[in-house]
Structures are given as C-alpha cells and as structure tokens.
Amino acid sequence: MTAKILDGKRLAKRVEREVADRVAAFRKATGIQPTLAAILAGDSPASAVYVRHKQAACERVGIASRLYQPDGRSSLEILQLIDQLNADPAVHGILVQLPLPDAVAKEQVLDAVHPLKDVDGFHPENVGLLAQGRPRYVPCTPAGIVRLLAEYGLEVAGQHVVVVGRSDIVGKPMALLLSQRDGPWGPQYANATVTLCHTRTRNLPDVTRSADILVVAAGQPGAITRDMLKPGAVVVDVGIHRVSGRLIGDVDYDGASLLAGYISPVPGGVGPMTVAMLLENTLRAAELLNRR
Ligand code: NDP
Questions:
Q1: Among 53, 129, 192, 216, who pairs with 156 as Cys (CB 3.0-4.6 Å)?
Q2: Ligand 1: centre distance to CA 24 (Å)
Q3: Ligand 1 centroid vs 270 CA: distance in angstroms?
Q4: 119: number of CA atoms within 13 Å, CB side?
Q5: Distance from the alpha carbon of residue 120 to the mean position of ligand 1, in angstroms
Q6: Which residue among 7, 55, 117, 120 is the active-site one?
Q7: Domain residues for 57?
C-alpha cells in the first residue's frame, strides 16, 4: 500500500483565499483592518523564520502585521509590551513566538495576553473553554490538523485516535478537541476515543499499532517507524526537524508511507495549516473585538 498524501500546502492556499475574501468583507463593513502583533524574543533563527512566514501569510490575505523584538533577557520588557498591545484597539491578535528564552517566565507571559487577543489559544481562559467543549480560539496546530482531516473526509467519530506528545500547544489541545461531543467542524470531527501518550507510556508501539488515526507531536525525528503502525492508518506528523539541511518530521516517512492509508508530509503537511489557522483566528479576534 502507498499512502495518500494529506496535502496541507494545497489546502492552506485555499483557506487563505477564503480568509482573504472574509477579511475584505470585514474591512468593507467596518473600515477596520485585522491586525496581528507578533512578539519575537531572543535570537532563535528557526523562530525568526516561523514569524516571517506568519507575517508573509498575513500580508497575502490583507491582515496587517507588526513585529516586536524585545531582547528576551527578562520577562519585564515583554510584559510591558503585552500590556501596551492589550490596550491598543488597533491590535486584534497577539502572538508570542515560542520557545521563549530561558530568562523569560513563559507562563506569566502567556497569561498576560488578553484572552480575546489570544489567537494562539494558549491563555488559561481559552484552554478552559476548549476543555468545556465551547472553544473561542482553537490552538492553531490542532485546528489545522482537524481541518486537514475534514478536507479528506477522514471522520474521527468513534475512531481510536492516538496522540503522541502532551505539550500544551499541540498534544493536549489535540486530545481535548477530538474527544468532545461536538467541534468546530461538526460531530463527525469530534467524538473520537483518544489515547494521549508521552515518555512514560508503556509499550508505545502496541498503543500506536491500535490507532486508526495517529497524531505524532513528540519532537523526536524518526520516533515513529513503520512497525508501529496499523495497516491503513491515518498518520499526521507534526514534528519539524532540520537534519543535514533537510526538513523531516517525527515519522519515518519512507517506511510509514508504505503501510499507512494517509500520511501528512513534512514539509507541506501540518505546518502550512498551522499558519492558515492563525489567519482565521486573527480574523475571528477582529470580529469578536468589534462586535456591536
Ligand atoms: P514538546 O517538545 O513540548 O513535547 C514533546 C512531547 O512528546 C512531550 O509530551 C514528550 O513526553 C513526548 N515525547 C517525546 N519523545 C517521546 C517518545 N519517544 N515517545 C512518546 N512520547 C514522547 O513538543 P511540541 O508539541 O511543542 O512539538 C512537537 C514537535 O512538533 C516539534 O518537532 C515541533 O517543532 C513541532 N511543531 C510543529 C508545528 C507545526 O506547525 N508543524 C507546531 C508546533 C510544534 P513528556 O511529556 O513525557 O516529556
């Protein structure tokens, strides 16, 4: 079997066109341009590339973006900046690019973002709303994954979904989103039976082999190999690693694609969908903040 590709690049382009139309309509109706403020602290080259991609995507759909680069030697400057951006009516979304430098108190910084401007969905209020099944902003990567599954008609209701990785930005919200009774893409894209795995999971290959849908966000290149899959499974690879100048994921793509039914490539799978969902969330923030 050769797996079908979950083409996030192509879908993200279509989502961008839809968002661009909605942004134009919103601007016409309100005279307001949705605006994203991106905070890039520290000097990680990878983070700088991600922020550049996000800003370029904003530009393509008519969302304004502003870049702020505090030095990242302490939390104070970032917290002051967030206070200013929270109070600025021209800013609708605030994005704090992760990871933050060690000297910065990550939780304090993420908690400081106004919940209505929290387009990444990391604020405890938004996490709570997601946990209760009434999401305001779904974190961009899990949102992009469900949108991608929906595009291919890969319903998750009743399926066994195994999520490898329990980070606050991918694994946990992914598990929450898929295990609700309903969701932004309808009940067929919720109602899964979800198993959340991590480094203390015993017999990981046995667990992953029982997955109808496997979402891998372990941050370990090659963590998932062909022998860990059920034949025909849907494999979603969130990992991104630059190895010898090439981008690869957490899944051994060449082996896995011989056994899986569907697989998301790296690059061109989850990454572009994450950016597309950020655009949707920023537009939604502008709409929510300007509701009359
Ligand atoms: P983190 O590094 O924060 O967390 C990794 C998680 O995976 C942890 O819960 C860890 O368990 C678990 N884990 C690590 N190794 C194993 C293993 N061998 N077996 C089982 N569980 C394991 O991950 P993130 O969610 O932030 O990122 C994951 C990957 O996704 C990274 O490569 C990142 O670059 C990428 N990423 C890609 C995005 C995209 O848009 N495509 C967006 C965000 C991230 P434990 O908790 O026990 O330590």
A1: 192
A2: 36
A3: 14
A4: 31
A5: 17
A6: 120
A7: 32-114
190-231 pLDDT per residue, tens:
999 999 999 999 999 999 999 999 999 999 999 999 999 999
CATH number, residue 89? 3.40.50.10860
Question: Ligand 1: residues whose CB is within 6 Å?
Answer: 141, 164-167, 169-171, 197-201, 204, 217-220, 223, 238-241, 270-271, 274
Task: Note the pLDDT tens digit of each residue in 11-22.
Answer: 999 999 999 999
Residue 276 resides in a domain: no
Residue of 229, 274, 272, 273 whose CA lies nearest to 254: 229
**What would the pLDDT profile of 86-121 be if each residue is shown by its tens digit?**
999 999 999 999 999 999 999 999 999 999 999 999
97 as an active site residue: the answer is yes
180 is a catalytic site residue: no
Structure tokens at 286: 């502008």
Q: How far apart are CA 250 and CA 263, in angstroms?
A: 12
Q: Is 101 helix (H, G, I), strand (E, B) or coil?
A: coil
212 located within any domain: yes
Which among 7, 54, 55, 172 is annotated as catalytic? Answer: 54
Into how many domains does the chain fold?
2
Is 285 part of a structural domain of the chain?
Answer: no
